[in-house]
Amino acid sequence: MPDAFVDRLRAIQQSKNSAVCVGLDPDPSRLPSPLSGADAPADAVAKFCYEIVEATAEYACAFKLNFAFFEALGPEGATVLEHTASIIPENCIIIGDAKRGDIGNSARFYATAVFDHMHCDAITVAPYMGRDSVTPFLEKEDTCAFVLARTSNPGARDFQEACVCDDEPLYLRTAKLVNEWNDDHAGTAGLVAGATSPEALRELRQACPTLPFLVPGVGSQGGDPTAVMNAAATDEGLVVVNSSRSVIYASEDEDYADAAARAAKSLRDVLNGDAGA
Ligand SMILES: O=c1ccn([C@@H]2O[C@H](COP(=O)(O)O)[C@@H](O)[C@H]2O)c(=O)[nH]1
To answer: What range(s) does the Orotidine 5'-phosphate decarboxylase domain occupy (predicted)?
Structure first.
């Protein structure tokens, strides 16, 4: 029987001493100089992702592939995405940042695509359509659905902070429901909670002590990694802290892979409280 997702994540984090997730958001217009201006952007993106994975895997417990950047490459994008997922080492979790959300019958097919064909260990899911739209992503015990609770972007305030009942914001109501679904599905759910609101992170951790959190929003979006760890990392409650642009575009020049490695290592050290040591 395969290991439960959360057990595998915990073992990887412990063995690598890292909560870092490197976000692969490959934008052809931002590729470093040795790869820019290529006639075949899909090939350049594939090489870029390969070099970044090779250079940073030592410092990361996970990679997050944002599907938008691969889909925008056109028909070759799916091949580049699958190939990139296939070169990620065994001792890293693969998160498909696909933000799926549809009626249950359609969601089943999204789940098959992401878990069985794209070889992801986890996916991001938008919960707006409710329980039946999320359930198909909770059914494999070695995978995880990270459900959007309180996102990192300014627009998070539009709906997620609105009070729905008993003065409770929607993000907290969402998290409590996801906690129940998690209990019904042998622990295959997690939450997306942005680094830009440590207050929300703290509340979410209180409401959901054991759910793993995927935390984007450090680096380019300005969230404070130390505040994230203080608010949400506990012995029981794992956090996976994503940084995309500030790692993968750490240099525009020939040294881009080394620069990415340095950025990932530096984030790992800050998260571990080892910065400057
Ligand atoms: O609340 C959310 C959910 C997802 N994201 C995604 O994470 C990365 C962040 O990129 P940075 O370059 O580190 O800012 C990106 O793929 C977003 O689509 C998020 O930022 N916030």
So the answer is: 19-260
